[in-house]
């Protein structure tokens, strides 16, 4: 019997929550609460469009012209976004991840990233998706440097929150005190700016309207547990995404270039350890030494 092109579909559930994680990229293909979607989804026999639900390792977002200097050498990555002449969203989102553990409410997948010409380093990666009937989804991503040299590292994830109506009609909360301006190729043009007095100030609930956003936020306001929260409310429903302190950056994308009916139906909420172009700028870049590990967590809950 043939499998879909995204590979094995790992289903987990707890109480009113259900999720499906794909072998391809260990991507979060579906997440529902009482049968209603909390994220934009795609068919199992379709590659994830616009990075829906994908993990972004060993860098999120873009590297300008795929070029960076590290360890006394200049490295050139393959250009995976030719229209903007950038390397985008890492090296593992189309790779096969193997399931190491699978229980009714959780699944753990792993992938070994071996050296390539543009990234001559070695990482062992693991991700756990776990559902809780009260607490929703928790995602825990771990990278261990199993190579012989210190590796530049950053990670992110790419879920799109949805409440089933266009985001123009929705109330949003984005917890960032500063946002990162970018040029026409989506590369940062300078340091992060204060959101106060700008359309990027979404720290209090407000209707999104037609505003277009494809920017990283930082200076994230956090609760007593260290979590920063993005909230989306509309159509009588609500969904929230949290990220832990490992991820001081948060990309928000209003899904303006998504195909057909998905356009502006979801809000891209991307926890990130570093900003766009971190490999070139060095800003918040993690230098992962041999034998060392870094772990970051984020999650989604209804309400």
Automatic annotation (TrEMBL):
Biological process terms in GO annotation: galactose catabolic process via UDP-galactose, Leloir pathway; glucose metabolic process
An example molecular function term from Gene Ontology annotations: aldose 1-epimerase activity
One Pfam family it belongs to: Aldose_epim
InterPro entries (alphabetical): Aldose_1/G6P_1-epimerase (IPR008183), Gal_mutarotase_sf_dom (IPR011013), GH-type_carb-bd (IPR014718), YihR-like (IPR037480)
Name this protein carries in UniProt: Aldose 1-epimerase
Source organism of this protein record: Thermomonospora curvata (strain ATCC 19995 / DSM 43183 / JCM 3096 / KCTC 9072 / NBRC 15933 / NCIMB 10081 / Henssen B9)
Phylogenetic placement of the source organism: Bacteria, Bacillati, Actinomycetota, Actinomycetes, Streptosporangiales
């Amino acid at each position: 019997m043939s499998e879909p092109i995204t590979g094995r579909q790992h289903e987990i559930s707890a109480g009113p929550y259900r999720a499906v994680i794909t072998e391809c990229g260990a991507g979060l293909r579906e997440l529902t609460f009482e049968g209603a979607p909390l994220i934009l989804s795609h068919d199992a026999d379709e590659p994830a469009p616009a990075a829906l639900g994908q993990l972004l390792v060993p860098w999120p977002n873009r590297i300008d012209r795929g070029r960076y200097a590290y360890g006394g050498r200049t490295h050139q990555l393959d250009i995976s976004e030719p229209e903007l002449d950038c390397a985008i969203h890492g090296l593992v989102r189309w790779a096969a991840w193997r399931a190491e553990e699978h229980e009714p409410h959780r699944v753990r997948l792993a992938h070994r990233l071996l050296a390539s010409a543009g990234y001559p380093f070695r990482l062992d990666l693991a991700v756990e998706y776990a559902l809780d009937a009260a607490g929703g989804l928790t995602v825990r991503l771990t990278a261990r440097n199993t190579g012989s040299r210190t590796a530049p590292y950053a990670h992110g994830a790419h879920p799109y929150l949805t409440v089933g109506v266009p985001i123009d009609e929705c109330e949003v909360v984005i917890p960032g005190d500063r946002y990162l301006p970018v040029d026409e190729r989506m590369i940062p043009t300078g340091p992060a700016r204060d959101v106060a007095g700008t359309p990027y100030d979404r720290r209090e609930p407000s209707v999104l309207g037609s505003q277009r956003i494809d920017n990283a936020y930082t200076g994230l306001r956090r609760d007593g547990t260290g979590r920063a929260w993005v909230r989306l409310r509309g159509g009588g429903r609500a969904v929230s995404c949290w990220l832990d302190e490992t991820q001081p950056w948060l990309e928000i994308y209003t899904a303006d270039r998504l195909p057909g009916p998905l356009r502006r139906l979801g809000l891209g909420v991307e926890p990130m350890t570093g900003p766009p172009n971190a490999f070139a700028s060095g800003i918040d870049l993690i230098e992962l030494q041999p034998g060392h590990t870094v772990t970051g967590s984020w999650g989604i809950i209804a309400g």
